[in-house]
Specification:
By secondary structure, this protein is mostly helical. It contains twelve helices and two strands. It is about 55% helix and about 0% strand. It has a two-stranded antiparallel ribbon. The protein is elongated, with a radius of gyration of 36 Å.
Length: about 290
Amino acid sequence: MTEPDQHSSPIKTPKQLIIVVALAFIVPIVIIGLLSQLLTSTPHDTSGDEQRVLERIKPVGSVVIADASVPRGNLTGEQVYGQVCKTCHEAGLAGAPKSGDKAQWTARIAEGEKTLVQHAVAGFQGKAGVMPPKGGNTDLTDDEVHRAVVYLANQVGAGWKEPAPTAAAAAPAAKSPAAAAPSAVATSTAATTPPAAAAAPAAAGGAADGKGVYEKTCAVCHATGLAGAPKFGDKAAWAPRIATGLNTLHNSALHGKNAMPPKGGNLALTDTDVAAAVDYMVSTAK
């Protein structure tokens, strides 16, 4: 009997060879495709990744804008601090006692709540620094300033009580139909005003903005020369400052310099408002 050749190939025909070669390419591709589909179809928990991304791109700080619906005189001490007082008291600018620094506040609290409130409302020139009236924002009511003083004092354990808002501030009157009527008439009149005629008041209003900002904020220091501020209209005091250029003056007013707090202590002002106020003061000192 003839023994089978152990070295003979199972592929006997060209057709069988073609099938084997084709399978050698197709089978691995199919296996890879199935594995890929299996891996990509498995749900992954991406909440951790998303959280890390949000943490990485979150802003360094935040800007708090006062709610326009809050009636005048109804801001809390914390709100007033965040909008006005924080400018100087957070960093100790212009000699202001830092918020939460018990060593700096102890002697001041010992003077009493009434004295501190009076200094905050009317302004105060001390040995170590200067406090402009109402922190430079004359739009604040006395009660709002009082609440801010209490808030700051309580950060170091004074235990004082903020004055409650008045009834008028707590419950603003609702608009009556009669009050709404003039508004409708004004709107109708404005709609029929020719563009050329409407442009004149707008230009006048824009020119008056600098004066308005000065009177509400800058005059606190510049009207009297408080804390070394150049007095309004004093050409000799303003001349060296004007010589540095408007850009420099704008930058100092926006970001603060020496005893001058950023935006005069009124962070609600826009950059345009501050620049307009600087331009107005410069124009009267040339």
